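User: Please predict the structure of the protein below. I'd like the answer in structure-token form so I can feed it into my own downstream comparison script.

Assistant: Understood. Taking the following sequence of 208 residues as input:
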Amino acid sequence: MFSLQTIFGKGNQFFGLLEDAAVAAADSTTALHTMLRENDRPPALDAFRLARQRERVIADKINEELINSFVTALEREDIEALSYALVRIPKQVERFAERYALAVHLLDGIDFAQRAAMLEQAANVVVEMVRQLRRMKIEEMKILNDRLRSIESEADRLMLELYRDIYAGHFDGKQMFLIKEFFEILEKAIDRCREAGVVAYQIVLKNS
């Protein structure tokens, strides 16, 4: 006969899978920051594709475990929501990287690294938030949530500065279009981190 501890312990694999998904997402943002910081070499896309592939494999594993598991450590809809939110981060990052690789010759002198650094920071906060799910400590999660919100607010402020530069006529028409598009993709990637963080925070609120 199985003990209750044995039965309920079987749901704990989801913590590890969600943590792996968050790390894969963060790794894609690190690769992007590195690519934009080292802009003296041709962009390489392998790291982004590998991160997306890892993310898809983990998401498939989560779905498989949800089907096969009688007991889960978190509510099933919460696991699905967080998994979906995490998958969207490297997807957005890869979108930027692929387009940047095609247009890099038109973007000489444009610095995206500062925004990419903020994206990397946001993704790393998400990793910490997902790891906190094992503990369900509302105070610690609130600190991380506030940190993520602060990063998002700073990114919004930088976007306003960008629009000011665009409207001031500092770029030609083609550059203006590309710069706006690329910064908006980065902003959306930060939003994806924020969305994942909100899901994690709400899970703790529900279970604390």
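That's the full token string. Helices lie at 4-9, 13-37, 46-68, 76-103, 113-131, 138-167, 173-207.
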